[in-house]
Structure formats: structure tokens, C-alpha cells
């Protein structure tokens, strides 16, 4: 059961990563031509990703919350026994960032409501970039911790 | 822009309350996965290690939600939308700085 939830957690995180990265890049200033790969990547209808990002963030977080007890009982004590403080540290940051990200979602939804307003642009950019940072951090940390036995034998 | 005020207050307060809750380790409750029990008070070591994360989030929701709803809408809408993004960004930075204790 834990393995199934872990795989679903990882798959949803991939979808979330794609959606939030498209949207975050679309909020930055355009320097590359639309014909380039980066230009095409950012030339999306960014507001259309909002609901998907919210649903994916919440569901991925719920799966993460379900995985927390086995992590706390099995993985963390092992990391402590092996004196892998940095591994515990990056996970602590992961849980805090996920919580702060959850609290941002209502504001994120309001600022991305269409029609988009000019005076909400700065908040929209900040909120989207924070969520993108949170998702990237949590994705990378989750994968490193999941594979830590292979990475640091 | 109107209609953003209450969610902006919620976004700001949620982050602040959550950060304070984990900094001072004040959780609405703790979950003890070894015995599958939720408790408000700390349990003896025989109950196993606690998880405070759920309780910190609950504390942040329980405090920031009612406050955001109680602030009159026209007052809330006076808050610049920029704060809703800027303060959480600062909080993320504070979390990163505080948690560097794990690495050095």
C-alpha cells in the first residue's frame, strides 16, 4: 500500500512540476523568441493551468501526508542512525515548504482569475514563482530521499 | 483590484502562524504513528516519535482562517496585492536560513 501511494505521489508530482514550470516561466520577462524551445515552452495560456496546479498540489500533499508516518517510523530513524543530518534537513525544509505552499493556494487562485488584472501582476508572479520553487525542491528532495540507499551506499 | 484582500490576509497569516508554530514547536495536536493516536498533550516515549506537522498546519488554518474572514472586506482590499506574494517569499527565505542548522 505504501509503495502504491509513493508511486502515485511521484507521478502526480511530475504532472504538477510540468504545469507550474510552464506557468512560472510564462510570468517572467520575454527575452527569447517565440520560435525557440524556451519561447514556445513559456508561450502558453498560463491562467489555464491554475486549477490543475491547485488540484495537483492538494492531492500530492495529501499523499505526502499519508506517507509521513512510515517515513517517521522507518526512514528518519535510519537516517539518524547513519548520522545523515543533511538528509533529515532537506526533508524538514520539504515539509515546511509544502505547508506554506498550501496556504498560498487561495490567493494564487484569486490572482489568476480571468480576466487577469494589471495590479495583480506582481503578486501573481511572486506566488507562482514561490510555488514553482516549492514544487521543484520537494520533487528533487523526495526523489533523492527515496533513492538514498542507492545514492549513498 | 478588489476581492483579493481576505485571501491575501490568509496567505500572509497562514505562513506567519505556521512558521511561528514550528519555530516554537506549538502544534494544535500531535500524531503518534506507532500507536496510531492523536494527542493534544505530549505522550511518554513509549508512544513513539510524534508528528507535529499536521498540528502545525491545523494551527495555521484555525488562526488565519477566522481572522481573514473577520476583517471587513473593504479594509482587507486596501492591502496591496504585492504583500500577498512578498511576505510568503520572505517566509520561505526565513525557513531556509533557520533550517541551515542541519547542514553545518
Low-pLDDT segments of chain A:
none
Number of helices of chain B: 4
What number of structural domains do the residues of chain B give?
1
The secondary-structure class of chain A comes to mainly alpha
Give, in order, the helices and strands of chain A.
HHHHHH
**Helical residues, percent of chain A:** over 70%
Sheet with most strands of chain B: 2 strands, antiparallel
- Output mean pLDDT of chain B: 92
Verbal overview:
The complex is a heterodimer of chains A (153) and B (104). Chain A has 153 residues and is an all-alpha fold. Chain A has one domain. Chain A is 78% helix and 0% strand. Chain A has six helices and no strands. In chain A, helix 4 packs antiparallel against helix 5. The longest helix of chain A has 32 residues. The radius of gyration of chain A is 17 Å and the shape is elongated. Chain B is mainly alpha-helical. Chain B has one domain. Helices cover 57% and strands 6% of the residues of chain B. Chain B has four helices and two strands, in the order αββααα. A two-stranded antiparallel ribbon of chain B has the order 1-2. In chain B, a hairpin with a 4-residue loop joins strand 1 and strand 2. The longest helix of chain B has 19 residues. Chain B is flat, with a radius of gyration of 17 Å. The N and C termini of chain B lie far apart (45 Å). Classes of the chains: A mainly alpha (153), B mainly alpha (104). At the A-B interface, helix 3, helix 4 and helix 5 of A face helix 1, helix 2 and helix 4 of B.
Attribute tags:
heterodimer; A: 153 residues; mainly alpha; 6 helices; 78% helix; 0% strand; B: 104 residues; two-stranded antiparallel ribbon; 2 strands; 6% strand
